């Protein structure tokens, strides 16, 4: 095994990985328990996250919040900033007080967030619930990922993170399916179900001993005895954050996370408004669709079995990852980490261009598949990269830093993504404009409750919803929002390329 290349405590060396089956067999039971906890957490999290935009724009008469996309953007942006910046400091806390302790605390906070969403169905109630959920997730992530780092080795880390990400996406796959069917009963059922699901993690915490606990306690003993000097947590985190390898990482990957989160925050709304998913069902099962409850659940169909719900369409992403991420991990283990991440970013950019170019259902399926492949090449690698270069005793802190570029990208996307969509692609906005053009008075148009304009347009004109959807789509440049997002991702791809060249040069100057 190669010796570490040291740059102010950061190990930049690339360690030769074990083969696929050797890597899998080398993973211990704690790794799989950690995967189980992440699985449970993701089922609950994506049960809400995948349908948040649909809940926000759904009219109050249908149990939704009935708010504008701009207001929804405020919620998402706040959620993003809290969830992704909290781990910068909670990672260091996890390293010091214990990973199991912080996972326990985070679970309580997240349960409170789901219940807040259920009890207070309003803008402020959902915002408060999102803030609690963000805080809980920000505390959970460094603890769970720090445990994973200590439960794996450098020579199996690529496969370990790939499998972990695959297990995570089983939760990402099941969560939206739970939401699809719960929300067809009532929206509050989604939040109650998610609170119950994440409570299962209390049981997982009883089943294992935290790896590295003795070393952590010994380190704390030496600190108290004055044998080791330890900075204040904020100062310790700042000293690591200002290292060039961390600063450049944050800057170049922010654009990718703008791209990434647009898929989950905005695409479900785009699919609900512009994509006729009944084409997919009729292709697979005929014009009558399917009455099979099993197929309706696993494919994310509506209760009539005639169309794919937006969450079901997006679930292709998690479905592909949970079935094939370990294969992509095995393939990309042969390449430098930054090279794999660059190609992943380029595939994701191509997917967004395709979404902007057409609203044909099967092309949207292809675009989601392209994005998923790109995600599998880049997202597990970010954790592997930061876990590998982290100095000893600061693994969770560095895995908290992983969230910083995500925080920058998601925070900006959370605010501007819905605004871009509302500017260039909002069906609600275009329906109100057309109602005025068709002769409805401006006062009557303004009186229409948020989220009901297109339904009123159908009633007012007497024309079919599919026909009017095509008219509105062809009359406006819907794809512009997606092209702008793709352009932001392109800037990130250029940055990743330069960053990879810089790291390679650093490794050449500091050979193993």
How would you characterize this protein structure?
There is one protein chain. This protein has 26 helices and two strands. The relative contact order is 0.15. α2 (29-49) packs antiparallel against α7, α2 (29-49) packs parallel to α8 (157-183) and α13 runs parallel beside α21 (403-424). The protein is globular and about 80 Å long. It is mainly α. The chain has helices at residues 20-25, 29-49, 52-57, 69-85, 87-97, 99-119, 123-150, 157-183, 187-198, 201-204, 213-224, 233-241, 244-265, 267-274, 278-285, 293-298, 310-332, 337-357, 361-389, 395-401, 403-424, 427-437, 442-447, 453-461, 465-475, 480-509, and strands at residues 6-7, 10-11. Residues 1-12 have low confidence and may be disordered. Strands 1-2 form a two-stranded antiparallel ribbon.
List the helices and strands and how they pair.
Elements: E1 6-7, E2 10-11, H1 20-25, H2 29-49, H3 52-57, H4 69-85, H5 87-97, H6 99-119, H7 123-150, H8 157-183, H9 187-198, H10 201-204, H11 213-224, H12 233-241, H13 244-265, H14 267-274, H15 278-285, H16 293-298, H17 310-332, H18 337-357, H19 361-389, H20 395-401, H21 403-424, H22 427-437, H23 442-447, H24 453-461, H25 465-475, H26 480-509
Antiparallel strand pairs: 1-2
């Amino acid at each position: 095994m190669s010796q570490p290349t040291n740059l102010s405590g950061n190990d930049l060396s690339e360690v030769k990985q074990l083969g696929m089956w050797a890597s899998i067999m080398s993973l211990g039971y704690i790794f799989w328990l950690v995967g189980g906890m992440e699985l449970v957490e993701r089922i609950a999290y994506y049960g809400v996250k995948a349908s948040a935009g649909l809940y926000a724009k759904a009219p109050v008469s249908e149990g939704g919040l009935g708010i504008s996309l701009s207001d929804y953007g405020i919620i998402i942006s706040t959620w993003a900033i809290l969830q992704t910046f909290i781990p910068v400091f909670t990672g260091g806390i996890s390293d010091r007080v214990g990973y199991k302790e912080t996972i326990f605390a985070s679970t309580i906070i997240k349960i409170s967030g789901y219940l807040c969403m259920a009890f207070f169905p309003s803008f402020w109630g959902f915002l408060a619930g999102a803030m609690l959920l963000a805080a809980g997730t920000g505390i959970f992530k460094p603890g769970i990922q720090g445990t994973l780092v200590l439960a794996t080795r450098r020579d199996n880390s690529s496969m370990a993170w790939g499998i972990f990400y695959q297990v995570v996406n089983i939760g990402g796959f099941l969560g939206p399916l739970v939401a699809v069917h719960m929300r067809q009963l009532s929206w509050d059922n989604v939040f109650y179900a998610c609170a119950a699901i994440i409570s299962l993690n209390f049981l997982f915490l009883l089943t294992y001993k935290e790896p590295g606990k003795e070393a952590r306690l010994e380190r704390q003993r030496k600190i108290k005895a004055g044998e080791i000097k330890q900075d204040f947590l904020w100062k310790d985190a700042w000293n690591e954050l200002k290292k060039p390898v961390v600063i450049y990482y944050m800057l170049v990957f922010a654009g990718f996370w703008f791209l990434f989160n647009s898929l989950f925050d905005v695409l479900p709304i785009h699919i609900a408004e512009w994509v006729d998913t009944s084409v997919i069902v009729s292709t697979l099962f005929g014009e009558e669709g399917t009455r099979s409850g099993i197929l309706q659940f696993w494919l994310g169909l509506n209760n009539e079995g005639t169309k794919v719900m937006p969450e079901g369409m997006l679930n292709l992403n998690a479905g592909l990852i949970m079935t094939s991420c370990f294969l992509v991990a095995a393939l990309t283990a042969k390449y430098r980490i930054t090279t794999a991440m660059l190609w992943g970013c380029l595939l994701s950019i191509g997917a967004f261009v395709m979404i902007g170019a057409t609203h044909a259902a099967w092309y949207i399926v292809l675009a989601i598949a392209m994005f998923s492949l790109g995600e599998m090449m880049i997202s597990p690698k970010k954790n592997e990269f930061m876990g590998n270069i982290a100095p000893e005793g600061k693994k969770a802190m560095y895995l908290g830093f992983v969230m910083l570029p995500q925080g920058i990208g998601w925070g900006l996307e959370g605010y501007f993504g819905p605004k871009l969509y509302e500017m260039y692609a909002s069906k609600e906005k275009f329906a109100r404009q057309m109602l005025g053009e068709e002769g409805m008075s401006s006062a009557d148009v303004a009186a229409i409750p948020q989220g009901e304009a297109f339904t009123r347009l159908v009633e007012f004109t007497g024309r079919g919803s599919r026909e009017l959807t095509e008219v509105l789509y062809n009359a406006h440049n819907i794809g512009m929002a997606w092209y702008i997002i793709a352009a932001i991702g392109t800037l990130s791809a250029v940055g990743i390329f330069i960053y990879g060249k810089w790291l390679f040069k650093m490794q050449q100057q500091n050979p193993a």
